Amino acid sequence: MPDSNPKILIVDDDADLLELLSIRLTAAGYKVEAVQSAEAALNYLDVARPQLVISDMQMSGMDGMALFEHIHRNLPTLPVIILTAHGTIPDAVAAVQRGVFGYLAKPFDSKTLLANISQALRFVPGGVPQNEVSQASWRRDIITQSAIMEDLLTRAGLVAEGDASVLIYGESGVGKELFAHAIHEASKRRHNPFVAINCAAIPEQLLESELFGHVRGAFTGAVRDHKGLFQLAEGGTLFLDEIGDMPVLLQVKLLRVLQERKVRPVGSAQAIPVDVRIISATHRDLKAEIAAGGFREDLYYRLDVVALTIPVLSQRREDIPLLTNYFLSMFSEKYQKNINGFSPEAMEMLLSASWPGNVRQLMNVVERCIVLSTAPLISPVLVYDAMHREEEQLVSFEEARKSFERDYLVRVLKISGGNVAQAARLAKRNRTEFYKLLQRYQLDPSVFKQSQG
Fold it and tell me: Which InterPro entries does the UniProt entry name for this protein (predicted)?
């Protein structure tokens, strides 16, 4: 008998059979939800996620196969067993080919049904204990009650069992690193390091050394050997965030490491074997980047063995109250404030917001409300002010990069006194490229020569 008490949704318009099936499965140790139509089953699946669906084939309204098609399209990892009083072998074969897990004829043998259920649940996180890790432990930091997220977590749990490379897609603030860490925690590598690096946050000339390491004397300032992140993650998982921003020349070297399972530190003639599982993430459309020449197609196929796309917060609004209360508890304790919650009007404002910064933005808004609150209940005025300030401060990645680039160019020109050749050397760019950057930001080097005088 399963000790994790998986939940099974059974669907049949025959009330007597539904009750009999419920009694048998409950006696076998399963949690059971029973509904009398496919339409009711879909309503249930909008708000909850069982580990298995058992459905009758012939029902008034939507039949069992139509229900399966809907489930398979929206929750592809949720197994479905079909029961039918009019089954034939060709029907069973056709159903299984379309993805139905099991197809049993009525009257069914209880032992056969329970064997099918047990087999189906072996492939589902939460169905039986997996890798000695409970469902609650590996996903404990992911707060959700969304059916979309539950299906995504099921897929994450399945992919965690192997070593296939995973590519996580999602906008900024949706929790890509959180998902990567959850996959690591659910895997056999969980007792070894989880190492993360943001490929967009480190200058190109340093990123190679950070990833692969360097030996003493490899370049100016390399006074000792330095282990790269591949070596530090030995036996564990390396998370490459914003992989779409990795320079093309470095992509070639990363591809070689993935193919050979060896790293060659900068300045070394010796390659070092590594055993690392790669999870990467991006907010970019990598297929578009490949078409534009900004990302290597061969590296893409190495990284995108399994793809997971995390929905934006506006697509999982049912999680907003859950996340809000979680952050409320966390920050109330942090700032030692006795706050009971958000007023209904304030919660309505949170539920209806667009959340361009996703979960990270929601967390910042809740924290700001906690810090500024002087009452036990957070008001809509406080929420409005926090959200308005957040929107003012939040700029796009492109705007932030342009602002940084212009400020950097101004500083280099000031240091060099407007000498373009010297400024280009300081920036480690050739003169032609440097002139193009100056033209892009309409910067006149002669102005900086005059300021020196």
Answer: AAA+_ATPase, AAA_lid_NorR, CheY-like_superfamily, Homeodomain-like_sf, P-loop_NTPase, Sig_transdc_resp-reg_receiver, Sigma_54_int, Sigma_54_int_dom_ATP-bd_1
As a dihedral over the C-alpha atoms of residue 28, residue 34, residue 37, residue 40, rounded to 10 degrees, the angle is -130
Write out pLDDT tens, residues 66-75: 999 888 888 8
Measured in degrees and rounded to the nearest 5, phi and psi for residue 65 equal -70, -35
pLDDT tier, 132 (very low <50, low <70, confident <90, very high otherwise) = very low
Binned at pLDDT 50, 70 and 90, residue 31 comes out as very high
DSSP-derived pairing of the beta strands 226-227 and 213-214 = antiparallel
Over 60: is that where the pLDDT of 152 sits?
A: yes
* Calpha distance 158→371 (Å, rounded): 40
For residues 29 and 52, is the Cβ–Cβ distance under 8 A?
no
Give the pLDDT confidence score for residue 125 in this predicted structure.
55
pLDDT tens for residues 279-309? 999 999 999 999 999 999 999 999 999 999 9
| Residue 401, both tokens | 């990069």
- 272: pLDDT confidence band, cut at 50, 70 and 90? very high
Amino acid 187: pLDDT: 92
Residue 432: CB atoms within 10 A of its CB come to 8
The sheet carrying 80-84 orders its strands as: 31-35, 7-11, 52-56, 80-84, 102-105
The encoded tokens of residue 129 equal: 């204990």
**Integer Cα distance of 17 and 85 in angstroms:** 12
Whether 249 has a pLDDT exceeding 80, the answer reads yes
171 close to 358: Cβ distance less than 8 angstroms: yes
The model carries a pTM of: 0.65
